[in-house]
Amino acid sequence: MFKVKLTQLNALLDALAASYPVFAPIVEAGEANYGEYKAGAEVNLFKQTVKSAKDAFFPQSQDLMKFRTEGKKIDIIDLRRDIAPFVIFGVRACDVKSFEILDRVFLSEPVDTFYKARREKGVIVSLACAKPEESCFCTNFGIDATAPKGDVTTYTEGEYLYWIPNTDKGEQLTEAAANVLESADKADEKAVEEQKKRVGEVLRRLPNGDLDLSEFKPEKLNELFNDPDWDELSQSCLGCGSCTFVCPTCQCYDIRDFKTNDGVKRFRCWDSCMYTDFTKMAAVNSRNFQLQRFRQRFMHKLVYYPSNNDGICMCVGCGRCVKKCPISMNIVKVIKKVGGKKHD
Amino acid sequence: MQELENLMIKKAVELLDGGVVDRVIGWKKGEFYYDNTPATFYKKEELNDFVYNGFCGANLSKYLVAESKKGGKVLVFLKPCDTYSFNQLLTEKRIDRDKVYTVGIECRGHLNIESIRARGIEGVVGLEEKGDEVTVKTLYGDAKLKRGEVMLEKCLSCKTKKFAHNACDETIVLHEMPEEDPNKRFSMVIELEKMTPDERFAFWKSQLSKCIRCNACRNVCPACTCFKCVFDNPDSGIAAKANDDRFEEKLFHIIRSFHVAGRCTDCGECSRVCPQNIPLHLLNRKYIKDINELYGEYQAGAEAGSRAPLVDFREEDINPGENLKEGK
């Protein structure tokens, strides 16, 4: 284990940034979001980022390819480039877990090469939670917020950031920051252990830390789909994309072509099942009401995805949607209402 | 607050029982006191979950656009600022007045959970409001706050607590509602006006670069009631889901704010719902201030059916660019 004073956080990031592009929770106009670290940036490790860390591997908007036209000739220009190893710094346990959920979508056949290229080069420096919030419910998904995985695990306690490399990539990163990191001693290890104990106790009394998810079984799909409560739950939904865009596991995207002067640029961008044109097809739109769109989001997270992925839910309990929904409707309320009764 | 809530429930029961209305739009209790959800109640038993506390900032008037297309009559509770949105929607013929029963309710300004969190008070699992004092229960102990410290921005700079003309069929007001200092409303706009163009550009660049284009501001806005927004129309050529650079969304916000200029009642919902806390209301307030200065005081929604200065030509109207000339 190593350590560095929190007052030296920028020095640590400067050291890393000398060898890698570094993405960290940077405060701009009052809000923390992951962004590329530049010397002197205000990094806040104590505030939950508005958007999750998924941008690192799956950017909100990404160019895929270009087509250049000349008369009847069309050139296809591959925009994939070799990506240099980069660091994602300060990723909480929930967001670390979300990468596994995204992997199952993007890295199963057919492999998404754009995602894979970034995923393989990302070095994850995770950060244990020191102060869980009431909106947190990660404990329902087998996540230990006090022991996040990643190539390096860090803790903030007292005036120090503690640094524990877990993998070869993590060891290399430790090398890169060798001038800034100092060795930790027994007392430091004890401080970290005490934090884990203290935070673990808070995690055990999270108000939504022990939700009953047993009703969301694939064999009950039809009954859950037809649950009359979707009507009430969705009735005041604004149909905005806040929940989907702050979510670390929502991974639906749209692909569009954009006409340029000499051809076409093809890009993809995050889409939201809450949007009216999400299922617009050549002839019809299969979801014409907000109820249908709203239901899709939660059925996907709680039933469809788990059915295809060994029962794993497409939610990590980060609580961003809980905090950000303009009308305070969220997956916790859905789990309690729909999951709170039998569907036989 | 409890007394007020009881009276509102009593009124709802009375109107449901009497057959005056067949449903009620109000707020439904959440899990933590602060996470109330706008909801429609059809039966009086459902009103057990009805709530009116300091976290009912959501403006219910826009829901009436959809509700008044349905049969029957709906009871809606409107805070003073919401009544301006209601009148504006009547002016724009988006609500069928005959299908709505409006009850104006007392407002002491609503609270903002994000302001509470921003004070380092995290893990909020419950609150208590008593007069001007708010006691916050958290996972890490209790904290006491003054109401005025943690109100929503739209309430801190409240335009008025007078109900808009003729908007309410009746009102439930138990206490006098003190007005906020009227200078607060435009103080930030004045700050922005004082900046150099470069400073102002830097301010908006920093703020609007946070936008994630979730469209919450548009979808909540009572002035944004186009059946199909141009930005949702794939045939419009301005497909809206991706930006080329982070500051590109400025165009969306500038276009949207101009589209609602003269119709925006300054209800402040755009800023309340923004997940990135972008002070979008400042764009609208700038136009309101300009309209006031160029055409005389005007409050959208004050009077249903009124003609707004921007759609009402008069010979004495100021000529374009006149205000920008030397010495003006």
Characterization of this structure:
- The complex is a heterodimer of chains A (344) and B (328).
- Chain A is built from eleven helices and twelve strands.
- The longest helix of chain A is centred in the middle third of the chain and has 19 residues, at 186-204.
- Chain A is α+β, with helices and mostly antiparallel strands.
- The radius of gyration of chain A is 22 Å and the shape is globular.
- Chain A folds into two domains: 2-204, no CATH class; 218-338, no CATH class.
- Chain A is 31% helix and 22% strand.
- Chain B has 328 residues and is α/β, with parallel strands linked by helices.
- Chain B has two domains: 2-112 and 151-323, no CATH class; 113-150, no CATH class.
- Helix content of chain B is 31%, strand content 13%.
- Chain B contains eleven helices and eight strands.
- Chain B has helices at residues 2-17, 63-67, 80-91, 113-118, 153-156, 183-194, 197-208, 216-220, 250-259, 269-273, 281-295; strands at 23-28, 37-41, 74-78, 100-105, 124-130, 133-138, 141-146, 170-172.
- In chain B, the strands form two sheets. Chain B has a five-stranded mixed β-sheet. Chain B has a three-stranded antiparallel β-sheet with strand order 5-6-7, with no helix packed on it.
- In chain B, helix 3 (80-91) links the parallel strand 3 and strand 4.
- In chain B, helix 6 packs across helix 11 (281-295).
- The longest helix of chain B is centred in the N-terminal third of the chain and has 16 residues, at 2-17.
- The termini of chain B are far apart.
